[in-house]
Structure formats: C-alpha cells, structure tokens
Amino acid sequence: PSLVEHLRGKKHQRLRALRAERRAQEQRSLFVTGFARGTSGAELADYFRTYGDVATGVMDKEKGAYAIVELREAAGRERALAEPQHHLAGHRLRVRPREQKGFGSSQVDTQMSRLVELLELSEAERRVRHLLVTLFQEVFTEFFPGCAVLPFGSSVNGFDAHGCDLDLLLDLEPTKSLQAAATGDLPASEDSILSDIDLAVTPAPEVLELVATVLRRCVPGVRRVRAVPTARRPVVKFCHKQSGLAGDISIDNRLALLNTRFLQLCAEADERVRPVVYAVRLWAKQQGLAGNPSGGGPLLNNYALTLLVLFFLQTRSPPVLPTVARLRDMAGDEDRAVVGGWDCSFPRDAASLEPSTNTE
C-alpha cells in the first residue's frame, strides 16, 4: 500500500515529469567540441540559430572543452546534425547528439569521453592541489627569497587521475641571483638560511636536506618527509595529512617543466588525444602491462604509455598530432629552449597549431 501511495503522490509525479523533461531536452540538445579556447556560450548560440531557435547554451566551466547547446525544437537539432561540417572562427566544430551519462551508449567515442570524466581529477581535487602549492610558495619564500614553487607532471599536464602524486620543482635560480648580486649579507630574519649558506656552491644533497627541514618544521600538515639524494632524480618526498596527497619536491628538474608543457600542448591540440590515452592506460593496467606488480620488475608506467600513444598519433596518415620536428619548425623565438643539451623548442599555445585533417 505504501508503494501505491507513493506512486500516486505528488513527489513521484514531479520526478516523472522532471525525467520526461530531461529526456525531451536531450532530444533537442547537441554536444559541441572543437571550438577555440575562450569561445563564449553566446557565440555558440548565435552560430546554431541558423538551424533553429536556441533555448540554452551551457559551457564546460572546468576546462572550456565542450558545450551543450539546446534548441527549442528537435527538428532544429536534426538540421544541425545533418550538416556535414561546422566551422566557427576558423575552427572546425565537432557536433554530436547529446548522450546520457553512463556506459549505456553503443558509441565507443562516447564511452571513452565518459571514461575521462570518471578518471580525471575533480575541480575540488584541483583546488586542494592549488592551495598546497600556494602554501609551499609562501613558506619557502621566507627562507629562499625570489624562489618559485612550480607544479609539473600528472597533476597539470592534462592526463591527471585520482590520487596522482603532486610533483613540484623548487626553482632556486632567482634566489642564487639575489645572493650573487648582494653586496653584503642579505637582510634576513632569524630563521633565514641564506645568511649561513651560499646556494651557488652548496652540494645538492645539502640543499635537499635544507628543503626537508623547512618542510618538517614549517609547513602545517606535512609528514613523512625524507630526502632521497641518491635517486636518479634527487627529491624530497612528503605526505600531506589532511588531503592524503603524496608528493615530491626536486630542485633541478627544469626538463620536467617542459615535458609537462609539451603534454599539455598535445592534450589541447585535438579532442581525441585525452580519451585515447586514458583508455589505453586503463586497458594496460587491466592486462597487467602497467605498474609494478608484486614479485615482478617495473613495467610501463603511465608516462611511458602516454608517450607511446602520442607517437602513434604523430605517425597516422595524415597525422593527428604534429611531429616533434614540425613543432620545432613552428616554434617562435619566445618558444626556443635548450635544457641539458635537449632542444625543447615547440609552440606553447595549441591555438597556433593547424587542426588535423585526420577524421578517424
């Protein structure tokens, strides 16, 4: 009897009506990607008015990577879907029917896009990482004036995943320049390190121990701090109690910053890149090809898998991503960089790349 009463009640009727309205909205809505960064919802709405009256346009607020455009009539949506190509401000738009969330779709590309949504960091997780970087910057500036705390790696390269480490570079070059330019001792508080050491000549292991000491004593919530000077890339490891984040701080890893920017460029260059990378990484993990299984040696990590996918996309015919040689040719004067003998010249802005003509 209680079930019958509920089904006849206003609450259930309102829910049924709401679901029906949402289904009707989906039948009138388009999922749009491929537009230029900074494109507004109003610009997209103006474009799609050629196919019918537009009810709403909702932009993806986290990354600006997609938009939902709802027309007032389903016929307007069908006219837009029947158009073979859409272009806005020099960018080719990809226009698809709006799909319900979940893996019920038979479309593989829709499932892969949904996979990215499930695996990538949430906006709240990104905020926590940003706040930690800000906290570290404030603390380290007290001891190393002019320094910069710069995140790199999976947290910011466009291929993030829940629980990924927070990799940081403590850039001390500006601090060394301040020391070199000082005529006498730098003005410092009683806690300052700079009155006691010269960063330009101090061995890296000693600097790492100083960084570890600052982390232990001065950064709230940080624990399990240990310097690892003998690692292939010397770091200070730490854990943040409140967020549960684990991370590394390195002091000489500028190549990693440029690697990160390169991956960001690839992630932004074509909307297919991220879904393919996430899908391959998940598949490799399920097949036992990735990670470091107990009893065995290290296999492919996510970074290696990502590079393999990028190379695959660079070698399609026609390519989905430009080759490294092509990117080097496209780099402007402000993009030129050589680190440790490696030519790291490539455009920093994905908007400067020509869209791929590959339609796979």
UniProtKB/TrEMBL annotation:
<dbReference type="GO" id="GO:0003723">
    <property type="term" value="F:RNA binding"/>
</dbReference>
<dbReference type="GO" id="GO:1990817">
    <property type="term" value="F:poly(A) RNA polymerase activity"/>
</dbReference>
<protein>
    <submittedName>
        <fullName>STPAP polymerase</fullName>
    </submittedName>
</protein>
<dbReference type="InterPro" id="IPR035979">
    <property type="entry name" value="RBD_domain_sf"/>
</dbReference>
<dbReference type="InterPro" id="IPR054708">
    <property type="entry name" value="MTPAP-like_central"/>
</dbReference>
<dbReference type="GO" id="GO:0016607">
    <property type="term" value="C:nuclear speck"/>
</dbReference>
<dbReference type="InterPro" id="IPR012677">
    <property type="entry name" value="Nucleotide-bd_a/b_plait_sf"/>
</dbReference>
<feature type="domain" description="RRM">
    <location>
        <begin position="28"/>
        <end position="100"/>
    </location>
</feature>
<dbReference type="Pfam" id="PF22600">
    <property type="entry name" value="MTPAP-like_central"/>
</dbReference>
<keyword id="KW-0694">RNA-binding</keyword>
<dbReference type="InterPro" id="IPR000504">
    <property type="entry name" value="RRM_dom"/>
</dbReference>
<dbReference type="InterPro" id="IPR043519">
    <property type="entry name" value="NT_sf"/>
</dbReference>
<dbReference type="GO" id="GO:0031123">
    <property type="term" value="P:RNA 3'-end processing"/>
</dbReference>
